[in-house]
Amino acid sequence: MERLARIARKLSDASVKRYNNPYAEFQWPQDLPMDQWHFAPELISLYGLEEYAALNEPQQKQLAFWEAVNFFGINIHGEKALIGGLAEHLYYMNWSPELSEYLHHFLDEENKHMTVFGTFCHRYGKKVYADKKMALPRDYAKGEADFLFFAKVVIFEELVDHYNMAMGKDERLHPLVQHINQYHHNDEARHLAFGRELSKSLFEQWAPTWNEQTLAGVQAYLSNYIVSTWREYYNPAVYADAGFDNSYALYQKAWSAPACRAHREAVSANCINYFLEHGMMTERPAL
User: Fold this and answer.
1) Which of 3, 7, 40, 2 is nearest to 189 (CA)?
2) Structure pTM?
3) Domain 2-12+39-130+139-277: CATH architecture, name and number where available
4) What average pLDDT values come out for the chain (287 residues) when binned by 10 residues?
C-alpha cells in the first residue's frame, strides 16, 4: 500500500490547505424564493417525461425545490453510513499511519457536509426524507467487507459528484444551492481519489483468495447497490409534495422510462468503467 500511503499524504496536505468552517462559509436566508431554480431542470428525475413537460414553469420550479431537498437528504443518509464505516477503519489492522491521518480529514469533511445539507433540509423543506436502504446482516470472506465498503463509497460519491459538478457551476440556480454543490464537490474530488485507489488496492489484495461464489456475490452486491442508490433519486414523496397524484405510479413510470434509464447509464459510466477496467465488476448492471 505504499502508493496509497503517498496519495493519502498528498490528500491530507490538500485538506489542511482547504480547511474550512461551514458555519462561516454559508449565509442562510430566512426563506428561499420559489421563483428561482433549486435543482438543475435537466437533472430532475421526471425530466423527459410528458408529466414534466405538462407543468408550467412555477410548477417545475416547485418540483425542483423538492428534488433538491431529496438530493441533500440522500447525501445525509449516505454520509451518515459513510462516517460510521470510516470510523471503524481508523488505525485499522496494519494500515499505514498516512491512511488513518487522511481518514480523520475524510470524517471531518463528511460531518461538515451533513451539517450543511441538514441545515438546508430543515430550514427550507422542514424535513429530511426517510432513508429507504436496508442493511441485512451476512457473513463475509476475509477482506470482502472492507472492499465492499470502499467500493460503495466510490459508487455513492461518483453519482453525487456528477450532480455537484453540474449544479455547482449552473448560474440558473439560487446562489445558495449553487454554493452548496460547489462546496461539496471541492471535497468530494479528494474523497473519490482516495476511495478509488483504496478499493482497487483492497480488491487486488483479497480477490485472489476468494472462491467463485464469493466473487459472484461481490459482483451481484455492487450491481444491486448501484441500482438501489439510483432508486433513491426517484422518490414518490417528492412527487406528492410537488402536487402530483398517484406518486408511486409516477415513480414506476419514471424508473422505467428510456430517457431516465439513459440518464442513469450516462452518469454511472465513469464509475462502472473504472470497476470493469480493474476487474472489480465483470458486466454492466441493468440500470
Assistant:
1) 7
2) 0.95
3) Orthogonal Bundle (1.10)
4) 88 94 94 97 98 98 99 96 93 88 95 97 97 82 96 96 98 98 94 95 97 96 96 98 97 98 98 96 94
